[in-house]
Amino acid sequence: MTEVSVNGVCKSYGKTKALDNIGFETEKGEIFGIIGPDGAGKTTLFRIMTTLILADSGSVAVAGYDVVKDFSEIRKIIGYMPGRFSLYKDLSVEENLSFFASVFGTTIQENYHLVEDIYRQLEPFRKRRADALSGGMKQKLALCCAMIHKPRVLFLDEPTTGVDPVSRKEFWNMLARLKSQGVTIIVSTPYMDEASLCDRIALVMNGRFLKIETPENMLRQYDKTLFSVRSANNASLLRQLRKMPEIKSCYPFGETLHAVAGKGFDIASLPARLVSDGEIRIDRINPTIEDCFMELNEK
Ligand code: ADP
């Protein structure tokens, strides 16, 4: 069953095309990831889907309701966690949650079972002011506040940005539990490693979806020869590799370089063609989602 349907959505700010013909559909109980760098258009899309701003053209329906005509219905059945801190800093953990519950005409007690797993971790700090919580704890509280009225669809805009790796992992475990209860989740992230935790992902760049696929298919469909190259002087290697006609692209990737060649490229020939003072390490590697992103972006 289609839960969220986005068709031909465009939105510009002056000359900036924040969204350029975006379209996709999500199924009930799906975790749909929107993955892309800063400025790609993620927040603009979330604001349109959550009825906070209007698109210039195109349409969006959530649970069959139209974002323009039926905005008040949609607001009752969705949870939204905006990218920036959305809590009341001066209120305690408990007061924040009770406030969000009361806005939707419910109470913490009534829907406690929905947030129990997460809120149990926050309970020792329930009298603490929200702005005195750690980054991970703030995000967990924000998720509780977005959940307390039992939404059908959850919109989470970069919920793990700036959160430590352990809390990030815990956060994604929570999303998996919500999914198992039938909640549909649309979540954005700049972290490519979080892509594999989604059922399907959309890679977004400059207001356009480059591709929508399951993470597994995204990796399977990568059809280039990819290898990592590393030496004491990666900058020099990068320059040399970029000059080679058979190397389609080469980019820094953590401590190494990733170089892309056409299928069948013989990497055994490479060491002799590269100049370096020290040892050069070359390995054939499998792509990550980030490599798929680079590849699609090149196209
Ligand atoms: P992301 O969430 O992926 O970082 P945004 O949706 O925030 O991307 O931004 C997409 C583009 O639209 C950026 O170029 C941004 O500068 C521009 N933009 C977003 N909101 C506004 C606004 N209110 N006024 C002007 N430009 C905006």
Automatic annotation (TrEMBL):
GO molecular function terms listed in the Swiss-Prot or TrEMBL record: ATP binding; ATP hydrolysis activity
Keyword Nucleotide-binding in record: yes
Residue ranges constituting the ABC transporter domain according to the UniProt record: 4-231
Keyword annotations of the record: ATP-binding, Nucleotide-binding
Matching SMART domains: AAA
Keyword Phosphoprotein: no
InterPro entries membership: AAA+_ATPase, ABC_transporter-like_ATP-bd, ABC_transporter-like_CS, P-loop_NTPase
Domain of life: Bacteria
This protein's name: ABC transporter ATP-binding protein
Organism field: Candidatus Merdivivens pullistercoris
